[in-house]
Amino acid sequence: MVRTQLETMLSFAVVVYLVTHGVSVPADGQGDLVNGFCCATRAWLEARRVAIGSLLGSFGDLAGA
Prior knowledge:
Helix content is 86%, strand content 0%. It is mainly α. The longest helix is centred in the middle third of the chain and has 21 residues. The termini are far apart.
């Protein structure tokens, strides 16, 4: 479990680094880069779904007050 979370975080960090630092990626490898970014982002969001849901719920509570 911990290894999966660590691998997910590292994959996400690598992709963010590559995207933000303008690393040139050959056209045939761009699909893999985007796919890896989407998978890492989805895994990160899924792991934090409860925390994000409670945060969004608290915004709804503030709007209703």
